[in-house]
UniProtKB/TrEMBL annotation:
NCBIfam families: PRK10696.1. SUPFAM superfamilies: Adenine nucleotide alpha hydrolases-like. Keywords: 4Fe-4S, ATP-binding, Cytoplasm, Iron, Iron-sulfur, Magnesium, Metal-binding, Nucleotide-binding, RNA-binding, Transferase, tRNA processing, tRNA-binding. This is tRNA s(2)C-32 sulfurtransferase. The lineage of its organism: Bacteria, Pseudomonadati, Myxococcota, Polyangia, Nannocystales. One of its GO terms (biological process) is tRNA processing. Pfam families: ATP_bind_3. Residues 52-214 form the tRNA(Ile)-lysidine/2-thiocytidine synthase N-terminal domain.
């Protein structure tokens, strides 16, 4: 179920300035909303005229993303469109009815796709191996196709701060590269901009908010595949470090914004200068609020 691009474009125009948040909002929701809008402004993730497909899995992160983006849209000083897309991958025991009912009540345009990725993933994954890699590739292709059909130029994902930090450690310890999750990137074919508005939000805050909001969470292990054990190890490592330094997650996030290329060993960085500290040329700088950007919610 979704509205056509023409139908959505005809919706009432958003107000010229952001209004104060509704009374009664929880402090945690306000915290998440402020962090999300600040990230959107800092990395210029959403601008006037954008049509954003919000991938909603039925987990706490994607519910929170859609909920907060819909609220921000209503108070943005420019117009942009949102459409939620959920993919039913025909996994055994799947029941998407609670999600559908929530989306119908929520009011945002949405579409639920049904594509059997479970059967080919099981058939082509060696015994004892996790399904995650192949499943992710198939899911991504389906979502990209949907985004093109729906006229979306951006795809919003619900990854948060802890996802990025765990990815940083996974790449450091197992892949031999310094790489985390960016706030936004352009797909290889140049068709879409993939954005992560919650990338600076703490998972614990999202989980607490999701519980308060009463989102109907769908199970995430229906395929029967084990969780990514390496990612679990990275999560446990961060939790262990947190016992000695309660601010370790915030410090790690700050490190991702404070890179000293001249102190690394990648020869490709030599051309960027010999100074002790060189700013990464393409690192987005916080943007001043303007008519094309969201401003931080009160």
């Amino acid at each position: 179920m979704t509205d056509s691009p023409d139908d959505i474009a005809a919706a009432p125009q958003a107000p010229e300035s952001l209004e104060p948040p509704p009374s009664g909002r929880s402090s945690r929701r306000r915290l998440l909303a402020r962090a999300m809008v600040k990230t959107i402004a800092a990395y210029d993730l959403i601008g006037a005229g954008d049509r954003v497909m919000v991938a909603i899995s039925g987990g706490k992160d994607s519910y929170t993303l859609l909920d907060l983006l819909w609220e921000a849209k209503a108070r943005a000083p420019f117009r942009f469109e949102l459409v939620a897309v959920h993919l039913d991958q025909v996994q055994p025991g799947y029941d998407g009815a609670p999600l559908r009912r929530w989306l119908e009540r929520f009011g945002a345009p949405f579409e639920i796709l049904r594509e059997d990725t479970y059967t080919p993933v099981v058939a082509h994954t060696p015994a004892g191996k996790a399904y995650c890699s192949m499943c992710s590739r198939l899911r991504r292709g389906i979502l990209y196709t949907a985004a093109e059909r729906l006229g979306c130029n951006k795809i919003a994902l619900g990854h948060h701060r802890d996802d990025s930090l765990e990815t940083l450690l996974l790449n450091l310890f197992y892949a031999g590269r310094l790489q985390a999750m960016p706030a936004g990137y352009t797909t290889d074919d140049g068709r879409f901009r993939v954005i992560r508005p919650l990338i600076e939000c703490a998972e614990a805050d999202i989980a607490a908010h999701a519980s308060e909001a009463g989102y109907p969470i769908l199970p995430c292990n229906l395929c029967g595949s084990q969780d990514n054990l390496r990612r679990d190890k990275m999560s446990a490592l961060i939790a262990q470090l947190e016992q000695d330094n309660p601010d370790v997650r915030s410090v790690m996030l700050s490190a991702l914004k404070n890179v000293a290329p001249s102190h690394l060993l990648d020869p490709r960085l030599l051309a960027r200068g010999e100074a002790d500290e060189v700013a990464v040329p393409d690192l987005p700088q916080p943007a001043k609020p303007g008519p094309r950007r969201l401003t931080v919610l009160p």
